[in-house]
Amino acid sequence: MKRRDFLKHTAIGAAGIGILGLPFSAEAAREGIRLTILHTNDQHSRIDPFPDDGRKYGGMGGMARRASLIKSIRQQEPNVLLLDSGDIWQGTPYFNFFEGELEYKLMTQMGYDAATLGNHDFDIGLEGLQKQLPLAGFPFLTANYDFSNTILKGRFQPYKVFEKQGIRVGIFGLGIELDGLVSKNMYGETLYLDPVEEARKMVQALREKEKCHYVICLSHLGYSYDTEKIDDRKLATQVSGIDLILGGHTHTFMEKPEVLRHENGHETMINQVGWSGLFLGRIDVTFSRKSKRRTDTRTAVLAVDNPVLTS
Amino acid sequence: MKCPYFKYLPGLAFLLSLAACQRPMHPATSLADTRLAVDHTQAVDPAVEALVAPYREEVTVKMSEVVGSAPVALGKGDYESPLGNFVVDLQLAQSEPIYGKPIDLSITTEGGLRVPLPAGNITTGHIFELMPFENEMVVLTLSGEAVQQLFNDAAARKITYIGNATYTVNKGKAQDIKIKGQPLDLHKTYTLLTSDYLAGGGDKLDMLKNPIKYEKLGLLLRDAIHQHIQQLTAAGKQVTAPAEKRVTILP
């Protein structure tokens, strides 16, 4: 067995031991600084749970429950980032009647740190988006839509850096090609730029200029297509230096994240949690206190079989 | 990660205790299900619930708003149906004023209309159930050939409802096709009204996929249905299926 393989397998062993009951948080506290990443995608205006009528995932979801889950994790973890990968809007009468106002208010109340724009977030046009944006107490990050010739010029940033106990986390957003997906009269003069090229610029800016220790991409490109169309898996192999891609658009229920290795050895993890807020994704990344280097990534199962007690 | 090593777990645990003494060369990554189920075991956050409550109440009120009424239920069926004929006709009535000129044909499919309209009061909620999707009306310009294929497919698969036309089904084939009373002319082009979903290949209507022209109307099918029933009610009319027969099926 090669040394690298040996280390890889011991990592699996470590996960096994975690399951066997070693207290993970105590271990992590000794080890370093832990960043807890919580994420959603394709919420599609699903404010209330799915009707419990025998359909798949019936009775699941609901923003008020998600809020209490997030709150309980925040009580346990010092460094939480709450992120969304787009298509917040469209799918229930809440959106048809109130045009996205409630979705933004609730996400603000839950303390979302950042989101990116999905194709359905253009469904009430640029004017609609402009009207509701002031209700969103979190930034929309987008690196490959150019709004310079639209009324939304200057309203979005390509990336944002969050600092948690000295760990600098750079987050940028990527959107899907709008042509063919959204009516032209909705997105107007918004330009779609090549996601691969913009992602490379983002990685460079975040790693070199911003000195980030960890780089996250909020992507609404979609997980995987058989065609040439760019997707999260292609992005991971074509752009080196992204640590985590939190995806959306394809409503993919990933049972566990996928890790793709770039030819230079850099590993990119991809995750996506279906849609409608049925699940909340959780990824814990540990960094060395001294070197600020990532030492561990855990995507351990935290069952929510028992009622979460909130004070 | 596939791992045949689980059966060696005790051994691995021992190896790990050795490895723990060493500085890891490579950041460890463990892959497991990341998903936290948001289900009934989660308590409801009262602050969020309080914010949602007035909106929910308004949604409930709006969804139970009575828009119109039907003396008998409008259901679905093969080739044509009360609900199908009602919808393809109202598509034309609501879209032609936006398009600014008459449209030759109007279609929808059996699967696109999710549920029948009930007898009695029809609420906004019923219309959302009938058309839960955000499908937008589009006008396609098609060759006579493509229109012929559309009718052949309708005769063979029985799922397409067609407005402004009549035809005869003989052994699964379309015959005697008339559009606005005129026989189908393969050398002409025709305009066809449908949803962007069906135009984009939904329900496998492949003949719609490469039209000569594709024009979006900015009107949602659901809104067209809603407006139409509102207008009927305002005019003192009920929701009824068009009376005339459109498809003749030869034994």
TrEMBL record, chain A:
Gene3D superfamilies: 3.60.21.10. Residues 35-252 form the Calcineurin-like phosphoesterase domain. CDD domains: MPP_UshA_N_like. One of its GO terms (molecular function) is hydrolase activity, acting on ester bonds. The keyword Transmembrane does not apply. Pfam families: Metallophos. PANTHER family: 5'-NUCLEOTIDASE, 5'-NUCLEOTIDASE-RELATED. Belongs to the 5'-nucleotidase family. This is 5'-nucleotidase. The lineage of its organism: Bacteria, Pseudomonadati, Bacteroidota, Cytophagia, Cytophagales.
Automatic annotation (TrEMBL), chain B:
GO terms for biological process: nucleotide catabolic process. Keywords: Signal. Residues 79-209 form the 5'-Nucleotidase C-terminal domain. InterPro entries: 5'-Nucleotdase_C, 5'-Nucleotdase_C_sf, 5_nucleotidase/apyrase. GO terms for cellular component: outer membrane-bounded periplasmic space. Residues 1-19 form the signal peptide. One of its GO terms (molecular function) is hydrolase activity. It holds the Pfam family 5_nucleotid_C. The keyword ATP-binding does not apply. This is 5'-nucleotidase, C-terminal domain. It comes from Pontibacter indicus. The lineage of its organism: Bacteria, Pseudomonadati, Bacteroidota, Cytophagia, Cytophagales.
